[in-house]
Write a structure and sequence with these properties.
The protein is built from 4 helices and no strands. The protein is mainly alpha-helical. It is elongated. The longest helix has about 30 residues. α1 packs across α3.
């Protein structure tokens, strides 16, 4: 017989009762940083294209890239690159069915977050 209470049941955990975990938010940020790196790559290709085109066009592109906004975008890109890389390594670890228990997964999540900032600071110091 058909379920008569079908319309009264929630379809999935609702946003009001679901608490996002660090692991889910971190996985979402891996995807966001991947897309942000595409934008940064387009910006770098534009800068290189301007260098190959003319001196005036390169001067304009270089002014954008060396402005405070351009430097902020590149700093964010360095962080996004490290975050995306570390998040990808974490996903590769999980793909091998390792570190799937909740405490270890939380530690890996914090490792990705803290590691991305530490590696960004090291990269900026070296550059």
């Amino acid at each position: 017989m058909a379920d008569v209470n079908r319309g009264n049941r929630p379809l999935s955990p609702h946003l009001m009762i679901y608490r996002p975990q660090l692991t889910s938010i971190s996985s979402i940020f891996v995807r966001i940083t991947g897309n942000a790196l595409i934008v940064a790559g387009i910006l770098i290709v534009w800068w290189l294209f301007a260098a190959a085109t003319s001196a005036e066009y390169f001067a304009m592109a270089d002014a954008v890239m060396t402005s405070w906004f351009g430097k902020l975008v590149m700093l964010g890109s360095i962080w996004a690159l490290w975050y995306h890389t570390l998040g990808g390594v974490r996903h590769l670890i999980w793909d091998n069915a390792v570190a799937l228990d909740i405490p270890t997964a939380e530690k890996l999540g914090w490792t990705v977050v803290v590691g991305s900032f530490v590696l960004t600071a090291i990269t900026v110091a070296v550059l």
